Amino acid sequence: MRFSTEEILQPFHTTWLPADIQAATLRLDRIHPVVSGNKWFKLKYNLEAAAGRPVVTFGGAYSNHIIATAAACEMRGIPCTGIIRGEKPAVLSHTLQRAASLGMELVFVSREAYRLKDASAFPDAYMIPEGGHNALGAKGCGEILSLADTMGFSHIICAVGTGTMLAGLVNATERPVTGISVLKNATSLYEETQALLTSPETSNWTILHQFHEGGYGKTSPRLFAAMNDFYRQTGIPTDQVYTGKMVSAVQQLLEQSYFPPNSRLLLIHSGGLQGNDSLPPGVLCF
Ligand SMILES: *Cc1c(COP(=O)(O)O)cnc(C)c1O
């Protein structure tokens, strides 16, 4: 992949950005129409490790990881199976419809069975964990900051689900990295992220836990207002599960003077826009 810096690195201005702070987004949502965002990076070395074997992975009905795996496997001609949490619904979500049309076999399992993450029915397959959460996923995410010339930024900010991307970013830079957790009570997230660091004693990173808006996948009128406001001011669309919460968090952190004067903030736009398709029309202005 080769991109010009202008395509991927997008500076932005908003009314809530203090005059002495610069900011830009790294638009991972633009790198591929379907395998968008950080999932591209998490899959890269996992699909290499699959070495042509069929792939099996796990996810929920709206999972960015499921759709990304389906598309990436289709591009490489690798058969893949998605083990999906919960009984098969009468109407499949957009995400699952698209994954199926890309050739992914969908296997629905009860929530209890899903928790076991059991892929033993596929003994010949290469198993990618839910969300691409493993060392190879983090290794791929270590390449995110090399997509464009990001050296001039003083602070990196990203949304955090499993912590795989956060770990990859921390492995790739000595600059401070702030992760915005989209989960409620994610007490094990710190250790899980640390386990993927090449230098586990590194301390240039933090996870903030107060911006989840009620928990994973939960939304609020304030979140939608922040996403719409950000789009109107910058033209940059965000998703309701991850990047919208990150942008809303950055706005609130700036109000609290969290970042020192003259900071140059790089917000990782990790993709996920397909998830907005499940919203009723009119909630978002984009
Ligand atoms: C999966 C995902 C994340 C979270 O990445 P982790 O490595 O699991 O922390 C963030 N943003 C988007 C859009 C995602 O799809």
Give a written overview of the molecule.
The protein has 286 residues and is an alpha/beta fold. The protein contains ten helices and ten strands. The protein has helices at residues 5-8, 38-50, 64-76, 94-101, 111-115, 135-141, 164-172, 189-194, 221-234, 243-255, and strands spanning 9-11, 22-27, 55-59, 80-85, 105-109, 126-128, 155-160, 177-181, 205-208, 264-269. Helix 6 (135-141) packs across helix 7. The longest helix has 14 residues, at 221-234. It starts with a helix and ends in a 17-residue tail after the last strand. The protein binds pyridoxal-5'-phosphate (PLP). Pyridoxal-5'-phosphate binds at residues 37-39, 64, 131, 159-166, 239, 242-243, 270-272. The active site is at residue 63. The modification N6-(pyridoxal phosphate)lysine is found at residue 39. InterPro entries: ACCD_DCysDesulf (IPR027278), TrpB-like_PALP (IPR001926), TrpB-like_PALP_sf (IPR036052).
Chemical compounds bound to the protein: pyridoxal-5'-phosphate
Report the CATH topology name of the largest domain. Answer: Rossmann fold
- Average pLDDT, to the nearest integer? 96
> What is the count of DSSP helices, taking H or I runs of 4+ residues?
10
The oligomeric state is single chain
Order of helices and strands: HEEHEHEHEHEHEHEHEHHE
Largest sheet: 6 strands, mixed
| DSSP E strands, number | 10
Based on CA atoms alone, the radius of gyration comes out at 18 Å
Spatial strand order of the main sheet: 1-2-10-7-8-9
* Tertiary shape: globular
- Tell me the helix content: 25-40%
